[in-house]
Design goal:
UbiX-like, FMN, binds flavin mononucleotide, flavoprotein
Length: about 210
């Protein structure tokens, strides 16, 4: 990694991975934001670590500094480009409207975290950061993955949509004829990047020739 100052980076985006299936969406999103030169502030829930271990070959430490180093090495981030925060680090900038970035993505988003955000629980830093995004009217994107959906899940999604959050289900389309799992991951990550206004070349936009 080379040294870089904050001014070298595009604005920070908060990315939280929670314990829904689809850890690769969140990891790929971090890689793409790093490639687009954004600063990325990361939180990974306990259950998300378990899902990452189950679904990927990626082994990530829980301790924030070691996690920062591991994610930076994985994505080729420059020094200071990725910052990771612990579950109860209430002193982290994401815990306050004065310090939180203008965009936050929870990807993947468990139904547990979905419910906590919809009801304002704020019992851990991910939930608190999402609560801050809502109260400050900042961009909040949730990428839930569950099937089937109960009335509780649907009601929470509707409540969050009405509060201004974007519900972007991890439901890849097939009209680009994905040839691999990576193509299906990129389908969802491209949708998230579109929402964030981050340029990418993961997929052609509809109406553009391939
Ligand atoms: C391998 C694995 C897959 C899981 N898949 C899902 C899922 O797709 N959706 C979901 O809402 N919860 C899923 N869970 C359950 C959540 O991890 C669990 O409800 C947890 O409490 C969520 O905590 P968090 O929101 O703090 O990450 C899964 C758990 C494991 C271990």
């Amino acid at each position: 990694m080379t040294e870089a100052s904050r001014a070298d980076f595009a604005p920070p985006v908060t990315v939280a991975l929670t314990g829904a299936s689809g850890a690769q969406y969140g990891l790929r999103l971090i890689d793409c934001l790093v490639a687009a030169n954004h600063e990325v502030w990361v939180m990974i829930s306990k259950a998300a670590h378990l899902v990452i271990d189950t679904e990927t070959d990626c082994r990530l430490p829980a301790q924030p500094q070691r996690l920062t180093e591991a994610l930076s090495e994985r994505s080729g981030a420059r020094a200071g480009q990725i910052r990771c925060f612990a579950r109860a680090d209430w002193m982290a900038p994401v815990a306050s409207g004065s310090g939180a970035p203008s965009s936050m993505v929870i990807c993947p988003c468990s139904t547990g975290t979905l419910s906590a955000v919809a009801t304002g629980a704020s019992n851990n830093l991910i939930e608190r950061a999402a609560d801050v995004a809502l109260k400050e009217r900042r961009q909040l994107i949730l990428v839930p993955r569950e099937a089937p959906l109960s009335a509780i899940h649907l009601e929470h999604m509707l409540a969050l949509t009405r509060m201004g959050a974007v519900i972007l289900p991890a439901a890849p389309g097939f009209y680009h004829r994905p040839a691999s799992v990576d193509d299906m991951i990129d389908f969802i990550v491209a949708r998230i990047l579109n929402q964030l206004g981050v340029e990418h070349a993961l997929l052609p936009r509809w109406g553009e020739r391939e």
